[in-house]
Fold each of these.
Amino acid sequence: MSDAAAQPGIVIVGAGQAGLQAAESLRAGGYQGSITLLGDEHHGPYHRPPLSKAWLAGEIEASQLVMRAPELLARKGIELRTDTRVAAIDRGSQLVHLADGTALPYAGLVLATGATPRMLSLPGADAANVLALRSREDGAAISDAFVHCRAHNLPVVVIGGGFIGLEVAATARKLGLAVTVLEAAPRLLARALTPRLSDWFAELHRGHGVQLVLGAKIARIETEGGYASAVLAADGTRYPAGLVVVGIGVAANDMLARVAGLECDHGIVVDDCARTSDPLITAAGDCTVRQLEDGGLLRLESVNNATEQAKSAAAALLGQVRPFTGTPWFWSDQFGWKLQMTGLAAGADQVVLRGDMQGASFSLYHFQGDKLRSVDSLNAAKDHLTARKLLDAGLSPTPAQAADMAFDLGSLVAKK
Amino acid sequence: MVEIVFVEPSGSRVAVNINEGWSLMQGATTGGVDGILGECGGSCACATCHCYVDEDRLSELPAAGESELEMLENVAAERRPNSRLACQIKASAALEGLVVTLPETQE
């Protein structure tokens, strides 16, 4: 192959949000060498956020998910190779071995391998209509199963009351399907939200006709001819299903890195500049876990984290130091409500409400002592954006100011 | 199909035919236009599809909604009176030939 003859450039493993961002940031940063973007899917980079929403609802077509026209990537000198699986990384020889037996030399490497949905280890979990949602194809399969459920008047059972599960549930209800959500924890979104907001989301889903079971223990999935027909709970309750969607979290795809001897701990360990334990290798997005200054490890699965880490990774390979110091943010769309979160609530000991939780919009401000840690906003984009500015600048309103609708929180930013 | 003319940060003009009902963000990114990121996929959550709409035709567009106006406060480049988010503008026959200029930066 001609690759070996050419000057080694930068190879990016993974053509998702982080991989594409790294490629574009390298070019924007003036990198002149070759950039090869390797993706194991059949498609080039595509938008994943709509997969649980508009794509699942059949409101948009596949071409609307495309993040970049192939000709634009070509124009930027980014060589995209789809259907390309990486078998191993040889750090000693600086080679990426592909599954087809060829190898690519690299001067720098970005690992943006994403994550894989966890599956249930229960009898019946391998049935054809027990599905997780990560890829376009997953979304299409769930979408097809929705059609089947509607035609045969069968309910959808969602296992896992996290963001993916609840977005799928909301989309299914929007299409008029009967939906049951089974969550093992005593509340929804327990990893991301404080109890008050978990309760609010439970009420939202119940109000839209979702049958919500908290503290659910699942015994097995009943099957008929290889297809799930019901989910059986440990207490004997039987939840009939034409489709079972499993949304119980993801595992970072860190196998390549682990085998290559990079430091991993439920994800590829990176510093705040997206650098791994090998100076020639960076990593970004869902496959990573970030080492914090206090020694803790932070896993964030979000578009914001993917793009920010990718920018840091590109900078690191260009010999620059670009820490990801911005306040993390995240969003979710369910039943016409946009949840926007920023900051990290860990350690918070006081919650202050701004607005009315029964009204059209509100935000919850989480304080640790008198320091603002995070803000969760529902249909309150202004609160969210102001919070991002405050947290970025290390500023805190007082709890009383946060609760006072008449007080302009933006004025604190302006004063800086 | 609706023809929209994008002016890239480099100054190059790229005419793209966009399906009616698609957003200008989708039309631009799938049409090979440089200068739009669209990180959030069109959820009005990231403000990286900032654009300047031909001022003379601004009034022909449906007005920006509340969340778009809020997000516009967060754009990386200068916000101007004709600033919009391309993900929130749907292509329609009324917009035929619209010139949309992309800012220097989205991040």
Note: Chain A touches chain B at residues 17, 21, 24, 47-50, 63-69, 71-72, 75-76, 303-304, 307, 311, 331, 333, 338, 340, 381-382, 384-385, 388 (CB under 8 Å).
Amino acid sequence: MNRGRMWTVARTDLLQLFQARDFWIPMGALGAIFFLVIPVILLLSITSVGDIAAVQQLSDAVAILPASAQAKIPSVTSGGSEVSDAGRAAYALAVYLLAPVAVVVPLTISTAVGAATIVGERERGTGEFLAHSPADVTEIYVGKLIASIVPGYATALVGFGIYSLIVNLTVGPEVGGWFFPTEQWWLLMLLVVPPFVLLTLSLVLRLSARVKSTAAAQQASGLVTLPLIIVAYSQSTGALLDSPSVTVGIGLAAWALALFSLIVNIRSVTRARLLGVGDEQ
Amino acid sequence: MSDPLPPALVDLRGVHRSFGDVAALTALDLQATEGAITVLLGPNGAGKTTAIRMITGALRPDAGTVRVFGMDPAVDGEAVRLRCGVVSAKPALYDRLSGWDNLRYSAELYGMGRHVDDRIASCATRFGIEGALDQQVGGFSTGMKTRLALTRSILHDPDLLLYDEPTSGLDPESAYAVLDLIRQMSSDGRTVIMCTHLLAEAEGLADRIIVLEDGTSVLAGTHEELARRYWPEAMVRIATEDPAAVEVLRGAPGVLGIGGDGVAEIRLDDPARVPDLVTALAASGARITRVEPHRPTLEDVYFAIRQERRTAPAPGAPPPPPGGGGPRAAEVVS
């Protein structure tokens, strides 16, 4: 495989995406809603506004968390003062309950990109250019996979940075200082989320290579992505609630599954499919 | 059948290709010689585009052999495609990218690296679009898109150019310019294979014509060879003030027959006899108003082929040509 050509395909696809305002404005908006707007409203309503009902509901939710997770919620600050109920509720919200947004955002964005990536070449007629080019179909597949993963994962990482800042600024004073990201959030973002994105995209690109239109690709991708989002959501939450070794285990298992899916699907792009004339290996 | 042509740069023999139940190519034979412009001529659905796709290895044949530069594109696809420049029926450009970025993308895929701006600029200048390269391609006119696609096709200095209806959708002036550029590229020593269903376009351009129909090549040769197949004798049209005056030519040396209505159509064994006929007519006192050697156009030839195919008694059985007997200069390939 010629890596130069693979990166060329990836870079050109990304360049096209960022030339399209109709793509990156909704992408930015989605990231902002999940990583900025919702956390700011929820955390400020607890820590600054002192919404009693919200604090009570969160305290009830904290009570049903596993004991190991509850034990990590600080009750005393480093200065020796007691952490308020609002502070403990905000900590639990920030660390445990908002975790799945880190999964939902990259999967949603990357799926939207990936679903259109190959069938889109066919619809625009540019598949003909790629089919006649010296690029190997594997280079095209991997290049497009990278170009589909990068926008979602990059948005998630940037959002994660912003989210960390918000959490530390709003909850940090309540619990005695900046504490976020926790060790398990690092593991979640760097070890658990990427393989779930890769797994999903490897399947979505296969669909994109096989269906006849972008609309059909979006529909079919939804069917694949929704269960994966649910699995990723539950696994991410579990990873955060349990010990770091469990998080690592979940991450490694997800990587193994993702790599298997990649190997199975890497040949799903064929020149005949780029031309839109049917199947051929 | 003997092949009088030099070794073919592109050589397809007995190629079959189906898409489901639809046969796109059926025993296609196609040869293109180095440095020549070969035009694939045929109606929509004749198999021209599929033939181009076979040549680059974008599609593989179900049966038959494909050799390009002596290689099998199904095996040595990358090596073959690196030496081909393709313009497909739709220009296949990325509308959201600028002209520069479209060309850089191609340059990188063809292994030219990222520092190719000088090469891009010189190629774009050749096609007259150097001033538009900064613009997004989505805003280009059809003619500009075609020029950009042509620029992209020669960027990596290919040996073989494959053009699939490159003048489709262009106004006459732009089409003429594109054909002129194709002629120039052939004169640079490149081999060109071009698909078209526009007869006038093929007539002015082709060194060799291959007529395709229903996925197979029905006839191949130069324009003259194809014309001779259907009009084996030379013909001259002569008009006189008194139409009966031409009767004096009956029995004259080299005259094979006189027909026509109003304007005499005189079949000859050799076009060089035309001055003798004119002299004989003038000596007889006839007043000549017009002398026109008849050279069948490609359109004449094409419709003769089509008519022959329609009236063929059985598939594969060569029917008698409409112009009578005589030598078969063109190569009947099916």
Note: Chain A touches chain B at residues 4-5, 8-9, 12, 15-16, 19-20, 124-129, 131-136, 271-272, 274-275, 277-278, 280 (CB under 8 Å).
